[in-house]
Specification:
The structure holds 2 protein chains of 2 kinds. Chain A is of the alpha/beta class. Chain A is built from 11 helices and 7 strands. The N and C termini of chain B lie far apart (46 Å). The chains are: A alpha/beta, B alpha/beta. Chains A and B meet through α5 and α6 of A and α3, α4 and α5 of B.
């Protein structure tokens, strides 16, 4: 064996950088309806083609086609549309509120609204999701009070998390929404443990974990898949592949040579790759995985293929690392526009109703922001400083009591 | 009442809690069918069933993260980390998740988990079977750290830990699993058989967290110790001929500050003994607290006898391990001032 060339280190790079023409030519996008839908009880070894395909229901004309069509009622579709629209309106308003200096931080989920909204509506009230910071549409779909959200974002006197947590890192137990944290990935295994507990108790609840494609590189991802597989935990493990982890494209996370859904194969789990901008496909895949989980058939890994249309956060400027107009070239379009088009083509929606709903939700968000502003924005109002010392333990130990007194409270 | 060694006492605590609370379950590496590499979970799977005491993949991060998820659901998982030296892959889970969950969620979620782990040296365990990591947990707000020194306390403290709604790191000094060890490695090994603290009730009882025990009353100097070092301290005090008072702290967090302050105010002197290396060790915190609270009662500088600031060595086991001679020397030094 001759070593003809010196070795070289390969560092993946995206197809386009600022100033380049956006390019998604490398993506193979199968047609809607093309991917088969196996029986939920099919053995894993008969599903190994699925992680390399793409489950899609809505075609380019907005029709629902193929075996994954969940045949949802127009009412449910309108509910989904409303949750997605509310998320987008809220994002836009609160992003501006941040720019006005009324809070320290915000993160949009523009382009990814279908995922949380469809999953929230598809699963049961008792199921628990272990979110990332970019599935706020879960809460919107379950009608979490907007005022509580804005109060949390302002860390004001009525903040349900008592001023302890960064904006949007919500916790909403009654809405099936587990406590968020800034460190990524470390709750993916909690979803598995929660699901194991449900199975241990003979309960009927299932768990849903979210992780971004960038964070699949963390050990937490491997640990969660291992435990989910070993104990056949009733959990749906979701990778939201929005192509970008802050400034790093998905190739840096290990997506250059394979799909994230395909990571399921080595764990003996079924893996689905799903059009994340297709509300119906998200719903159908979730329903399929939920049925498997509820029938003791174990965990499913789902990769939602989507695009992070906005910057990573209010602290990020995406034009520094990708073409400014890249989102417009994303081949899977906009989830809101696609569901709207579907409803319109089915005769269940029209532009006037859409505009009326947009106006209604805009007013609703404005009213919530106004109400929260009256309580106080960041720094103008805060919970009692006593709250800083509560909740470290179930009962405070002498240290926090002494330190609280040291502050004169 | 039965005579039990530490292993049997811990096994009994787990057995009692499995019997008593259907939300208690145990998992970790080799804890199920085999009963644990130190036999602490011996026969529990056979007695209580495979879903209540089961084997886990070799993944400390996975063990603790799933335990936290179970805790959030409403169970009381008892997870085992085979050696405290191997708890570090789970450190992020303990620090960023278990310790913070209640605080950050405004009390909506919490993690009533107990993480048992054998720790400490004196067994020729080398670098990765001997460490004492208590200080890295003491610094983390939201975690309690508990360390027993005898069979009676081991069972009572473990039951209290499992029943606590807070996350607990429960460190078991493996050197004294089978008998008290006073640091005299050249003498015959003792068993727990003739020790009063090895009389252990068979049913349910608790030893409260956050309460130190006065092992020996004395007037001239206070010795603060925990784990296997309590037995080393007893020997060192005896060899020094000094009338020292010995406190077994039993929990690092919460700490029994009142007992410590009362004792040092009485004796006017304080020596701290632990196996972990000195710099940044828990002895530093103890020393600061004593200095802050007992300054006008102190007759001499606070002494610290600890492991050296090196990784735990193999061949130099007894040069590293802070034995009774080093404590006796520190006690004599304290008395000279």
């Amino acid at each position: 064996m001759t070593n003809s060339k010196p070795l070289h280190l390969h560092v993946p790079a995206p197809a386009a950088r600022p100033g380049d023409e956006p390019s998604f030519k490398h993506l193979v996008v199968p047609k809607a309806g093309e991917t088969r839908r196996p029986d939920v009880a099919a053995p894993e070894e008969e599903m190994r083609d699925l992680p390399y395909k793409l489950v899609r229901v809505l075609d380019d004309a907005g029709n629902a086609v193929g075996p994954w069509n969940p045949n949802l009622s127009p009412d449910v579709l309108r509910q989904g549309l409303r949750a997605m629209l509310l998320t987008r309106v809220f994002d836009e308003r609160l992003f501006r509120v941040h720019r006005q200096g009324k809070t320290s931080f915000y993160m949009k989920s523009t382009g990814e609204e279908a995922i949380g909204a469809a999953q929230s509506l598809a699963l049961s009230a008792g199921d628990m999701c272990f979110p990332t910071y970019r599935v706020m549409s879960w809460l919107m779909a379950r009608e979490y009070p907007l005022i509580d959200m804005v109060n949390q974002i302002f860390s004001n006197e009525r903040d349900p998390l008592k001023g302890r947590q960064l904006p949007i890192l919500f916790s909403a137990r009654d809405y099936g929404f587990y406590s968020l944290s800034g460190n990524v990935g470390s709750r993916f295994g909690h979803a598995v443990g929660w699901a194991m507990a449900s199975a241990y108790k003979g309960d009927d609840k299932i768990a849903l974990g979210y992780i971004g494609e960038g964070t699949t590189a963390e050990g937490d991802f491997h640990e969660a898949l291992t435990f989910a597989s070993v104990y056949k935990a009733p959990v749906i493990l979701c990778v939201t592949n929005n192509q970008w982890a802050i400034s790093s494209y998905s190739g840096i996370a290990g997506g250059e040579a394979t799909t994230f859904a395909a990571k399921a194969l080595a764990y003996g789990l079924p893996g689905l790759r799903v059009d994340g901008n297709d509300f119906l496909a998200v719903w159908a895949a979730t329903q399929w995985a939920a049925e498997r989980a509820r029938n003791n058939l174990g965990a499913t890994l789902i990769e939602f293929f989507t695009y992070r249309a906005a910057g990573h956060s209010t602290s990020d400027d995406p034009t520094k690392y990708r073409p400014a107009d890249e989102a417009e070239h994303w081949p899977l379009g906009d989830p809101l526009a696609r569901l709207k088009e579907h409803l319109i083509s089915a005769g269940e929606w029209d532009e006037d109703r859409h505009q009326a709903l947009t106006d209604e939700l805009t007013e609703k968000v404005k009213a919530a922001v106004k109400e929260a502003e009256a309580v106080g924005t960041l720094g103008k109002s805060k919970p009692s400083v006593r709250e800083m010392f509560e909740g470290v333990f179930s009962e405070p130990d002498w240290r926090v009591i002494e330190q609280r007194r040291e502050m004169g409270i | 009442m039965a005579n039990m060694n530490m292993i049997q006492a811990l096994n009994s605590a787990l057995d009692v809690m499995l019997e008593r609370d259907p939300n208690v379950l145990i998992f970790g590496e080799d804890v199920g069918y085999f009963g644990g590499v130190f036999r602490v979970t011996d026969k529990l799977q056979e007695k209580h069933g495979i879903t209540r005491c089961f084997d886990a993949p070799i993944s400390e991060g996975g063990i603790i993260s799933t335990a936290i998820g179970m805790g959030a659901y409403g169970l009381r998982p008892v997870a085992e980390i085979q050696f405290a030296d191997y708890i570090l892959p789970a450190y992020d889970q303990l620090v960023s998740e278990a310790a913070r969950l209640r605080y950050r969620s405004g009390g909506e979620f919490w993690a009533p988990i107990t993480v048992r782990s054998p720790y400490g040296g004196g067994i020729f365990g080398g670098q990765t079977h001997s460490q004492s990591p208590e200080a890295i947990f003491a610094h983390i707000t939201g975690i309690k750290t508990v360390i027993p020194s005898n069979p009676y306390d081991a069972k009572g403290l473990l039951i209290s830990s499992i029943e606590s709604d807070d996350p607990i790191v429960f460190l078991e000094p493996k050197r004294i699993y089978n008998g008290p060890f006073d640091g005299h490695h050249d003498r015959q090994i003792k068993s727990w058989a003739n020790e009063p603290s090895a009389d252990v009730p068979e049913g349910h009882y608790t030893v409260p967290l956050g309460k130190a025990a006065t092992v020996r009353e004395g007037h001239d100097v206070t010795v603060l110790a925990y784990g296997a070092m309590v037995h080393v301290a007893k020997a060192g005090i005896e060899e020094s001929g000094i009338d020292a008072e010995l406190l077994d702290l039993r929990s690092i967090v919460p700490l029994d500050i009142d007992a410590i302050v009362a004792s040092v105010k009485k004796t006017g002197r304080c020596v701290i003994l632990h196996e972990a290396s000195r710099y940044g060790g828990f002895g530093g915190e103890l020393s600061a607290l004593v200095q802050e609270r007992c300054f006008y009662h102190l007759k001499s500088p606070i002494g610290r006898v600890a492991g050296w600031d090196t990784p735990y060595p193999h061949a130099f086991e007894w040069d590293y391990f802070p034995g009774p001679a080093r404590l006796a020397k520190a006690l004599r030094q304290a008395m000279q001032n």
